[in-house]
Each structure stands twice: as structure tokens, then as C-alpha cells.
Amino acid sequence: MGIGGISMWQLLIILLIVILIFGTKRLKGMGGDLGSAIKSFKKAVTEEEDKDSKNGENQASKISAEESDTSAAENTEKKEHSKQ
Asked: Which of 6, 11, 51, 60 has a 20 to 30 Å separation from 79 between CA atoms?
């Protein structure tokens, strides 16, 4: 038994029929197109993940900058209040 109840001989016959219908050049071209499509998809996914991580880092740095600005303002207020 092969894959899903199909024997190895049946798979070879199906492969032979596909080659006869499409030809080796066309199959090679379709394989190349499929490979480039997968490569482009992976590149787009990694670029999107990089963009998301950069946005997260930018937001974190903005938050820390706001916190430092707030704490600096609070320190200034405390100094002015203690002088009085």
C-alpha cells in the first residue's frame, strides 16, 4: 500500500500521464514559478514581522520617553515646591 491506498505503480502511472499531458518544459516552468511564489511569500511575511517588531520597539521607546518626561516634570515640581 502506498499513500492513501494508492500503490507505487499507480503513482508512477499518474506521473507518466501528467508528464505526457504537460511536458517536461512546462512542468519545469510551473515548478520554478511555484518556487519563486513561495520565496516571495516568505519574504513578505518576514518583512511584515520586521515591520511589526519595529513598530513595537518604537512604541516602547515613545512610552519610555513619555515616562522620563513625566518624571522630569515631577522632579522639577518637587524641587520648586521644596524651595518654597
From this structure: 60
Rg of the Cα trace of the chain? 31
Distances (CA, A) of 53 to 41, 67, 84: 18, 21, 47
CA 8 vs. chain centroid, Å, equals 37
DSSP H stretches of helix in 1-84: 8-22, 24-83
Amino acid at site 8: M
**C-alpha to C-alpha distance for 33 and 40, rounded to whole angstroms:** 11
What's this model's pTM, rounded to 2 decimal places?
Answer: 0.45
Summarize pLDDT for 28-57 with one digit per residue, the tens.
898 999 999 999 999 999 998 888 777 766
CB-side exposure of 61: number of CA atoms within 13 Å? 6
Angstrom distance (rounded) from CA 30 to CA 4: 25
